[in-house]
Amino acid sequence: MEVLFDTVLSNPVYIAILAILGILLVYAIIKKIIKLIISVGFILIAYILYLNYTGQEVPKTIDEFKDSVSGNVSKAKKAASETIGNAKKSTKKIVEEKAKEQLDKILED
What we know:
Elements: H1 2-10, H2 12-54, H3 62-108
Helix pairs in contact: 1-2
């Protein structure tokens, strides 16, 4: 391992290649962080526009924002669970009807 380090550090071409790779790595990380910040910013702006559109109060502090988001998430969970429950009931009803039709067909023959 020491031989590898000595070889790399003794040759300026290898040092230049390592420097370029390091710069590219830092650039890629910064680029991803900037994309993440922009995405989160767009999501926050969309959320504030949604609150404004629905007539709800836009939170002024971070604590109010956390409470608002958690309240809306719990509403979304409740709505999703109700929708899933309704879908299960309707699917079960349809499957039972189709099974009954098939059973009636088999028994008629």
